[in-house]
Amino acid sequence: MELLSVFLSALSTVVTILLLNLLGIGMSHYKLLTQRFLKQLAGLSSKVFLPSLIFTGLSKGLTLEKLMLSGLLPFFAILHIGIAAAVGYFARLFVKPSKEFWTPFLCACAFHNSSALPLVITTALATQHPFSNDPNAFEKMSTYIFLYVTGWGILFWCCGYTSLLDSARTVDLTETVDAEQPSTGKKNQVAWGRIGAALKKGFVNPPMIMTFVGIVVGITPALKELFHGERGAPLGFVASAILILGQPATGIVTLVIAGTLGGTVLDKIKYIKQNRKQLDSITASKELDQHVNPLVVAGTHSKGEAAIDSQPPKAWPVKVLLWLCFFKLVVIGGIQFGVTAWLVPLIFPADADPFLKLVLLIEASALPSANLNLVICQQAGNKEAAETLSLAYILMYIGMLITLVVYLSLALYIVF
What we know:
Elements: H1 3-29, H2 35-61, H3 64-70, H4 73-95, H5 102-110, H6 116-126, H7 137-168, H8 184-203, H9 206-219, H10 221-228, H11 236-246, H12 249-292, H13 318-347, H14 354-363, H15 371-380, H16 383-415
Helix pairs in contact: 1-6, 1-12, 1-16, 2-7, 2-9, 2-11, 2-12, 4-5, 4-7, 4-13, 5-7, 6-7, 6-12, 7-8, 7-14, 7-15, 9-10, 12-16, 13-16, 14-16, 15-16
């Protein structure tokens, strides 16, 4: 591809994402996407639509030969997380976030949005020239994304999930903790209970189950013939039903991302307006009391009068947020992309599927942090970390509109 064509393709993709996010803000503003509805959509997507898309892509597009070639994708996911975690560890020492945000800061650096956002990006790319010349472009790229996510999911649920829970000091998942003085045996029981719960969440969930089922069907000719046989598949009606269920997946995921981001933006704007009114009210009350009651000037109140709560709301850690976004989008993204671009030609043959290489470079393109980091913080009761992450995500998605154009342009230029 020519340099101008590469840039225009990347820019068009990013503008598509921008429009979708603006659409999410608008739909949230007009109450078309409420948080309750988004939660239901997210649950439906993760339990029905996305698993159906995963099964269709893997069972139909995967072969034993492709699996042998693309089997390194989960290891690339582990490599990317390792690089990001190492940089995040040293960045954390430099930035010095609050105690509540210590572990979430590291997890926000380490775990990026590895499935939902890449699906949106590849969907936008698949509709553009020259990718649109291949009718199976999105199917191929989504297959590689799902294989990549297997490695990502293992590390997140085994390491990130348990770390976020421990940082919030939540009740153990087995509900066997003695709140006063747990014995050593009970402590070990709690630790194994958390590990078991993390493994269960990581492997016993609809997307992961359908990933393994899809791989088995895809690499087994006899099973593939049952579902996708060209000369009449006995279970073709099942494959067709699953295909139909999987078609809304990308659209639903896009709505969930855009709606969540839009809702967060609106909530923060509302929060700022309320705080301004509160501070204005406090200031006006102080000025009035200084004329009426001189004791207020000295910081005291007359008897029988309620003291005015003049404490301003807790300030957001703007410095920490900006540094987190800088390290995530620029430093970590630059290292990940550089290492991946260096390894791809060394590991994969020149005639390897270009969509495989493209997906790897997209995953290394400094994508914002995973939504699961925020969700786990909320579930664990670490409210301060969840609110801080929500603000960081807004900044990341704004910054991504610039950095993604650069990384995606480089990826398209390298591969095509």
